[in-house]
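User: Some background: our group keeps a shared notebook of sequences we're curious about, and every so often someone picks one and asks for a predicted structure to add to the entry. Today it's my turn. The entry only has the sequence so far, pasted here. Could you supply the structure so I can complete it?
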Amino acid sequence: MNPICKLLNIQYPIIQAGMVWCSGWKLASAVSNAGGLGIIGAGSMYPEVLRTHIQKCKSATDQPFGVNIPLLYPNIQEIIEVVIEEGVKIVFSSAGNPATWTGTLKEKGITVVHVIANTKFALKAQEAGVDAIVAEGFEAGGHNGREETTTLCLIPMIKETVQIPVIAAGGIGSGKAMLAAFALGADAVQIGSAFAVAEESSAHSAFKNKIISAVEGDTKLAMKKLVPVRLLKNEFADAVSIAEAEGADRNRLMELLGRARAKLGMFEGDMENGELEIGQVSALLKEIKPAKAILDEIWLEYKSGLQRFNSLFHELNL
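Assistant: Of course. Here's the predicted structure to add to the notebook entry:
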């Protein structure tokens, strides 16, 4: 049995990323009901809001689901308490030191998966006792690794470095990309952008429409002096580029970012002044559809591609 499917008790080795302002209980429960692992993104939620989403998700699905927790969250203690009190069984942690909270979560019987972008932190996550890691390449949307290592290079490096299961992320939005990730050694895939445009995604309709109209080159990695993040180009992204070209320091970038900039764009629908986090794969996304349809299409394309390669190998007598 696939190690991630066994670990998380899911049907398909497909995980929906915990995206800020996109992944509430509706999306998480829809993905879980379709056989993948749905994840509630706690990064855009106050503790009691997260509690409500967890409770609604439990009512909407009897399948496993998880919560993504950015470990640098200012209310991290309260977030952890909510997750434990509500009986969440799976946590995907990110943006911080996994050694801080992994032990506490595992003592409560919670499966812990940590998101990394390089081999150094993959080893730190393994040493911290996490059950699996998400290796996220440079193509991914949102916050990204400073090394700018692409998924094609990152996954085999991580597989050679750790002994725990590896989930590939970054640039994966189709069955073909999933097949490539498995060829590189991944045990499962985590998909963000393709689910950001799901009907059940809590993202604003204007943001979804901007994603599906994106073409090659419409995203860029910005704010490397602060926290690298991949954005769709707009007036805000242009202002960041100008500031960086003029040598802006962390404080200037923080001032430019301001408060709730991501909420303004992704949740409230301001397509020019908001921060629009999305991956390079957005150029391949052309339609808003239900989460189940997205997952089913990815899985069917993966199986079709696998059959094609098996046929090729057979023809070559390999």
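Suggested note for the entry: The CA atoms of residues 29 and 59 lie 9 Å apart. The mean pLDDT is 94.
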